[in-house]
Amino acid sequence: MKFFTTRAGTWTGFGAAALVLFGLAPLLLSGFRLGLLAQFLCYAIVAVGIGLAWGRGGMLTLGQGVFFGMGAYLMAMHLKMADAEFRGGPGAVPDFMELAGIRELPAYWAPFASPAFTIAAILVLPTAFAVLLGLAVFKRRVKGAYFAILSQALAGAFAILLIGQQSLGGFNGLSRFRYFFGYNLDDPVNQQMLYFIVAGVLLAVVAVSLQLRRSRYGELLVAVRDAEERVRFLGYDAANVKVVAYAVAALFASVAGAVFVPIVGIISPASIGIVPSIMFILGVAIGGRASLVGPVVGALAVAWAQTALSEQFPSAWTYAQGLMFILVIALLPGGIASTAAVLKRIPTKRATVEATT
């Protein structure tokens, strides 16, 4: 395992991941299963950010659905604008607004006709919101369970807010997208292109997370997690250190939400509230929040289990999923990523018992 901490090991790991994602998966999976995998990879992107904020920074972020939803809705607004312009020309009202009796395009929708503005908004708005929220919270030294409850309440409030916004689809959300930056979403070739995009984004965010973890900032983030007051005594502003990790996690979630929309074809308040946010955390906990690839593995495992179990046991799959969580936490407190370390300790424990007897 130490090999993967070296430069050669890092390149080997990324090469193997690229081979699986870009080579084997498209070759072995059907179009439907590849689309499911693309959806799961979106969850994995969110998990990488949570692994940085929670695993390295000690911030239990139970509200990542907010940033996931912000990125998703921003992208969905652009896609609906593109569809409306294709159907009725510039300034046309999206179809769901016509059904709701909205005859004039709301002013805040108009800029999202521009692809450049949409991409900039996806990258900037959720990150800026995370920075402002982080400064307001961490400067007041809110942490632990209080921060977790606050972030979870924010996710619930955001979902309720969206339900009441008829100009954003209300409870039903936004759906039935036809084009993605000029590409027809019904074309299987373009659907595979979306898979390649999300796979590339996942590798990119893992690389960014790895760089942050190995940098001096990463060491400082761990120090803030383990001994925040000592870091303050050394002259560092612990709040600013936390804000950076929280903002990066928000950026990752926003990008994941943006690529999630054209892949799945719908975004609604039900996809970004408290329950989805908890599912993000669940995947990271099962995979191993302290490791780099653990959150990715956990997110993929939870998403796959949810899909597979719901197909086989429609009325009981949630119990099986809960049992999986209990077993992993009980047997592997460090998550799936700690399996090798746990197995390595077993012979040592046996040798110790034999020596004492």
From TrEMBL:
PANTHER family: HIGH-AFFINITY BRANCHED-CHAIN AMINO ACID TRANSPORT SYSTEM PERMEASE, SLR1201 PROTEIN. Keywords: Cell membrane, Membrane, Transmembrane, Transmembrane helix. GO terms for cellular component: plasma membrane. GO terms for molecular function: branched-chain amino acid transmembrane transporter activity. The gene is urtC. The keyword Transmembrane helix applies. The chain crosses the membrane at residues 12-30, 36-54, 61-79, 116-138, 145-164, 193-212, 233-253, 259-285, 292-310, 322-343. This is Urea ABC transporter permease subunit UrtC. It is found in: Cell membrane.
